[in-house]
Design a protein that fits this description.
Radius of gyration of chain B: 24 Å
Number of strands of chain A: 0
Radius of gyration of chain A: 20 Å
Oligomer: heterodimer
Helix content of chain A: over 70%
Shape of chain B: globular
CATH topology of the largest domain in chain B: D-Maltodextrin-Binding Protein, domain 2
Largest sheet of chain B: 5 strands, mixed
CATH architecture of the largest domain in chain B: 3-Layer(aba) Sandwich
Structural class of chain A: mainly alpha
Distance between the termini of chain A: 44 Å
Structural class of chain B: alpha/beta
Distance between the termini of chain B: 87 Å
Shape of chain A: globular
Organism (chain A): Tepidamorphus gemmatus
CATH topology of chain A: MetI-like fold
GO molecular function (chain A): molybdate ion transmembrane transporter activity
CATH superfamily of the largest domain in chain B: Periplasmic binding protein-like II
Pfam families (chain A): BPD_transp_1
Keywords (chain A): Cell inner membrane, Cell membrane, Membrane, Molybdenum, Transmembrane, Transmembrane helix, Transport
Number of domains of chain A: 1
Function (chain A): Part of the binding-protein-dependent transport system for molybdenum; probably responsible for the translocation of the substrate across the membrane.
Largest interface: A-B, 48 and 47 residues
CATH class of the largest domain in chain B: Alpha Beta
CATH superfamily of chain A: MetI-like
Helix content of chain B: 40-55%
Number of helices of chain B: 12
Chain lengths: 222, 273
Amino acid sequence: MDWTALWLSLRLAALTVCILLPLGIVLGRWLAYRDFTGKGVAEAVIALPLVLPPTVFGYYLLVAFGAASPIGQVWQAVFGHQLVFTFEGLLVASVIFNLPFAIQPMQRGFEAIPREVREAAACCGMPPWRAILRVELPLAWPGIVTAMILSFAHTLGEFGIVLMVGGSIPGETKTIAISIYDRVQAFDDAAAAQMSALLLALSLTAIALTFAVSRRIGRRFG
Amino acid sequence: MGIPMVATGRRWLTVGLGVAILLLALAAGAGRATAEVPVIAAASDLQFALEEIAARFRTDTGQDVKLSFGSSGNFARQIRQGAPFEMFLSADETYVLELARDGFTRGDGDLYAIGRIVLIVPHGSPLQADGLLDDLAAALEDGRLTRFAIANPEHAPYGKRAEEALRHKGIWEAIESRLVLGENVSQAAQFATSANAQGGLIAYSLALSPKVSALGTYALVPEEWHSPLLQRMVLLKGAGPVAERFYAYVQQPAARTVFRRYGFVLPGEEPIN
């Protein structure tokens, strides 16, 4: 068992969720309540990582953030090290790639709140921020929890992008998925089997939790 | 209905806050990994030999290196993109010399080993491990061969040499449609020894490792059949003292013994056949 890689993956997944939580709430709520021209395009852009092959995404990331790119050079000047082949680079990639997994369930969560509930809150004189905190967030919470679980699990399993922009550096970019790949190539089937089983168990737990949470929403509003 | 709903919501909020705190605690452990341990990029044919050398280095010096294995061509590309490796052991000196020419390295580096390729066939394969590839050619004719593994010739030196050997034998065109390409030579070895392929051309150093040799039989392909696998290593710009020390260690007798045991011919030494 490659504990360094597992810890790295857990950290990556946790940080991704921490960044996506506020981002998803703001964007998900905005998409749920606002109608505007180009909404379809915005939703398509957010959903793109669902259909885009990870290697394509990894390739663009390498081009956009690599040493030769303007973004890469600015990053290098500010932070003194590269963005690609670092943990930060993986985190940026992971946040972008998880956008649909975070935003879509949150958007559904906000959409599921009956309009009358929000109107009632407004009629009672609740200030908007208080209505968000006391009424909307608690009601949309199952969607938010689902989003967090999905993003977390999805980050643990991500392989293509990490392979493209990670460089398999132990303790920095070698995630559990890459470590499994490496162990197979080292003919270390026992370790590969162990880690795969752990990842399977984690994914299964995540999906089971997601379904449990969704069922709660269904029971409440169905 | 409003009040019970909000109450349920509150409970979710508490659960959610708990989850968020847990995540933050996990995330707090982030930050940059220990930078003092140098990361070393090494060709896949060194998978077993270099692990052993690094383990000895740890015992002898108390210092640690991190090894990353892959295809030499990929590493060369990653180094150009700014990958933070401190030392690069390539399976083909061309990659090192090109990096040196473009200013990514400290000097031209040193030749550390010369590699060989072998034909490996897994137990139960209809092929024979015949280094002159006569049985392979026959198997292509009589349809015994369905899948044959080599590393990707586009960016893996051992793949390139495998292609050269197959061309030398005059069976490249015939075999091309039956090839499975490994991303690097370890993966090719993985494919070649699985029951899904009837064999493959891989690194001698991998075939000699106990893990791989348990899976099949192998035979050396004549070295005149392909251009020599001159393996060169180099320190990259930004290499620290530990990487420098490891670089010197790889040239010491203890390391050379390990390389020799894995079938590498060492620069300045005659091959033992």
